[in-house]
Amino acid sequence: MSEPDPTQRFSDRAENYARYRPGYPPAVLDCLRDEFGLTRETVVADVGSGTGILTEMFLQRGHTVYAVEPNEAMRAAAERALGHYLRFVSVAGRAEATGLPDGSVGLVAAGQAFHWFDGPAARVEFGRILEPGGWVALVWNARLHEGDPFMAAYEGTLGAFGLGYHAVTHRSHRGEMDALFTRGYQERVFEHSRPLDWDALWGGFLSASYAPLPGDPRYEPLRQALRDAFEAHRQAGQVRFRYLTNLYVGQL
Questions:
Q1: Does residue 186 register a pLDDT over 90?
Q2: Is 136 a member of any domain?
Q3: Which of 7, 38, 151, 167 has its CB 3.0 to 4.6 Å from that of 70, i.e. a possible disulfide?
Q4: Does residue 3 carry a pLDDT above 70?
């Protein structure tokens, strides 16, 4: 039996993804500007752009952004949210075949998406669409659970239900990054957090590709376990969800 197309894994999660997924700290774009020469004139390809979380950050700073996304539901959500930006261009494409012209962008970015790419094919495609001297930037939010009772409880709950979420995070893809950045890459780390009520916590969880959906026997028990963790640690109806944002930047 063939594996399901990974680009379709989020078709039934697009609404929760758009509403509840976290953004990235502004320091990420500050770093690209201050250390890697990103200017307002830099054209960006946000590859695997999803519902446009990272895309909008670049748009807000005046960049032209090609939002390249293969999933129709995710792409449509981005078009609804970002269509009013004059420099927003929605593209039905994928990392291995973006459809963009040769040498058309100064930065290829991927937020929370690189682990879905075919690394060798993406490297060839990124090299084709980048202008000489262009950069690739990979961004991930990782949960920061050490030293925080609620975050430790959240992490422990997911682990107890055997969701296999480590298999679809950057923690298992250092080899692919080494193959992409054969000249090496630089890493920067930023810490940030956001307050969440129960609906936002649960909605954010359901946006993950590994989260069971209604009808799965794990759905209700897991929902109750996460609710118990929320109730045990909430203050004024909210918990604080903490992240480390990892930025990897290099040239091909």
A1: yes
A2: yes
A3: 7
A4: no
* Helix ranges, the chain (H): 14-20, 27-36, 53-60, 72-82, 119-129, 149-160, 174-180, 198-206, 219-233
For 9-46, b/e burial (b = at least 16 CB within 10 A) is ebeebbebbbebbbbbbeebbebbeeebebeeebbbbb
Checking if the pLDDT of 65 tops 60, the result is: yes
Q: Which domain holds residue 22?
A: 6-145+166-196+242-250
* Residue 73 half-sphere exposure toward CB, CA atoms < 13 A: 13
3-state DSSP assignment of residue 158 = helix
Q: How far apart are CA 180 and CA 121, in angstroms?
A: 10
The answer to the question of residue 56 being in a domain is: yes
Q: Which residues contact 30 (CB under 8 A, 6 or more apart)?
A: none
Query: Is 235 contained in some domain?
Result: no
For residues 105 and 133, the answer to whether their CB atoms sit within 8 Å is no
The per-residue DSSP string of 44-76 comes to EEEET-TTSHHHHHHHHTT--EEEE---HHHHH
Task: Assign residue 87 the CATH number of its domain.
Answer: 3.40.50.150
Element of type H or E holding 244: strand 239-250
201 lies in some domain: no
Task: Report the relative pairing of strands 44-47 and 65-68 from DSSP bridges.
Answer: parallel
pLDDT band at 174 (very low <50, low <70, confident <90, very high): confident
Return the CA Rg of the chain: 18
Question: How many domains, in total, are found in the chain?
Answer: 1
